[in-house]
Amino acid sequence: MQKIIDRFISYVTIDTESDPNSETTPSTVKQWDLAHKLVEDLKRIGMQEVTIDDKAYIMATLPSNIEHEVPTIGFISHFDTSPDFTGAHVRPHVVVNYDGTDIVLNEEENIILSPKYFKDLLQYKGQTLITTDGTTLLGADDKAGITEIITAMEYLLHHPEIPHGKIRIGFTPDEEIGRGAHHFDVKEFGAEWAYTMDGSQVGELEYENFNAAGAKITFKGKSVHPGYAKGKMINSMLIANDFISQLPSDEVPEKTRGYEGFFHVHHFNGSIEETVVELIIRDHNKNKFEKRKKLIEKIVKKINKKSARQFGEDIVIAEIKDQYYNMKEKVIPVKHIVDIAEKAMKDLKIKPIIKPIRGGTDGSQLSYMGLPCPNIFAGGHNFHGKYEYVPVESMQKAVEVIVKIAELTSQPNFGLETPKKGKK
After folding, report:
1. Pick from 151, 278, 260: nearest CA to 213
2. Which residues in the chain come in under a pLDDT of 50?
């Protein structure tokens, strides 16, 4: 446990916030600080073929210790943190033997992590939690995953009696801004399939995710003295507000769950002359996803039609770009890779929680690049904010799952039951 705590804290205290406005890879120079440390750590524990390319993508190999051939598998995590909340100067707090009451993160600012609001906390009474100090995010997304992968590889290196095939690991920058897989060399990685360690609570196992797109809607206006504005002024902020009001009011993140999709307006920056609205579009169903994009285009067309009559010109410009797609389409044909992870959890007395991801991971893009890549829990909660925390016992269980998957994939039929005759 202490090794996991020390390793995790050494990673989260390095600022690796990514930047969506940057055009470089990685998007921030500071991501290199952790990238170089990870390379040193991988070499130190005895991993082979440790490489880092000019864009900070890291790969390494744990060689097979068995004589028969089995598929090469992989484990992947990202080392950047979200730009939604600062990850600079992270000062983690370790709460030993959590007693189920409020945790004061920051007494001066009266910032409290309370089970009255975050009810999941009560699952972890008696366990060791790592929290923030109330001023930054923690970075368990996804430095918990990195900690777990490296710890599992170190354990396998120290326990050669556990059989396993060749294992490849990969660490990526910029996942939080949707670019983590953009420069990932699937051919060089050389695995038949992989698992991202990037989920939340113990037991999560996911192979479905949102289809995702981002939209930037620009509204053009005309500024005129308000005393003489009749028939002349175009207030772009009001037009933008009209656009938002025409989106389905119940199809937003705070009112949806499970397979329900949504529109999420996350930035609004405006003046009379110009307003820019940025939103994301999410849906698990491909047809509904396409309909959501068409709805935005329909609303824009409607506003422009009205403005053409009133002002003689279009005043709205919509840019919609797809970001990633539901990995289910690529994973279902090789569903045994999910079954292996499920069996690993069951063998460890962990109840699998198989559910759709209400988001995306590097794995969703990698699956479409030829590397099927389901997602496994990493243990953290309340990502991207000051209330983020991770139970150390959850990270331990993730390590055990990685080791068990490695062991299962060395066995005939991956340790899965052979289907009975006449049954699929």
Report:
1. 278
2. 419-424
